[in-house]
């Protein structure tokens, strides 16, 4: 025989002329909350449901799933990092951490689970692999510090994986000449000049305003004080730079100063690089501007055409010196590819080739960490054995002489 349910006796209160039964319980945060119902039976069910909910919340606080703790970790990071960085974290977290492990409790995750989650990333770029690996470790070390884990499954996870990215070389002097001749008078010309001869990052060049361009002084220079970013394709310009070292004053050569003077004479915008309405470029606008360069290179292209309802893939390799079929004004003049960052890399490399000391290059490039500058320096200085021949011989000459004397 089933045991009869005992319904407690509750106090009653009147609210807006209606009689209610009332009881109080503690919520998950320890605060007292009131529950109301028109019958004791209904209030009793509400009380049981509320207690179950409180127990569930308390349980999940002590035993969160990977998805729950990742979301909490992202909220904690929002006070420390920029909106763009947080957006990148959230995207990588969602695709490569929450998808494979989101439903697991944090304390259940093993090192093997993390290794399995990283397997698909081993076929992607080394940079992406390292970013996701870093995110996973940050999340689990944070949970460990919060005493949600007894053993951290990340302890033995290797930090290396993914396919090494093909590093872009600096443009040669001849390539720079071809590039500038190709785009002379076209929308990307000013951006390219700023990248090649001031070394600004893309976000710095697109945020540059005329109040930070000093042309009527004995030594013309650019002040980096603002940064551009895109939020839902819309441009956002702020004074929050990538690092403290990004705030710098860069002397500019005559060719860039002349180019900027010419642009300023016809500009109606506060921005050095602006759209037709004088506003900073959106992300899609910048991509369209950069296409003026891409379409003039002999880069292999892939097209899809629908034939009899089927999508057919076509691959075309343009020939240097020929014109585009559909637009004869576009001539394939570049047998090399160019990226926005490559302009900056060319600027830094040329400074080092010219014998500028690495500490000065670090300042001009806005590198916070000297290792970034020194890695480029080492590559520039030590990539040709024939240039090291005299250095090595001079360094070893004393020991060679001593050996000969001993013989």
UniProtKB/TrEMBL annotation:
- Taxonomic superkingdom: Bacteria
Q: Which residue range or ranges hold the Tyr recombinase domain? A: 166-390
Keyword DNA-binding, does the record have it? yes
Q: Cross-referenced InterPro entries, in alphabetical order? A: DNA_brk_join_enz (IPR011010), Integrase-like_cat_sf (IPR013762), Integrase_catalytic (IPR002104), Integrase_recombinase_N (IPR010998), Integrase_SAM-like_N (IPR004107), Phage_Integrase (IPR050808)
Keyword annotations for this protein, in alphabetical order, are: DNA integration, DNA recombination, DNA-binding
Q: What does the function comment of this entry state?
A: Site-specific tyrosine recombinase, which acts by catalyzing the cutting and rejoining of the recombining DNA molecules.
What is the similarity comment for this entry?
A: Belongs to the 'phage' integrase family.
Name the record gives this protein: Site-specific integrase
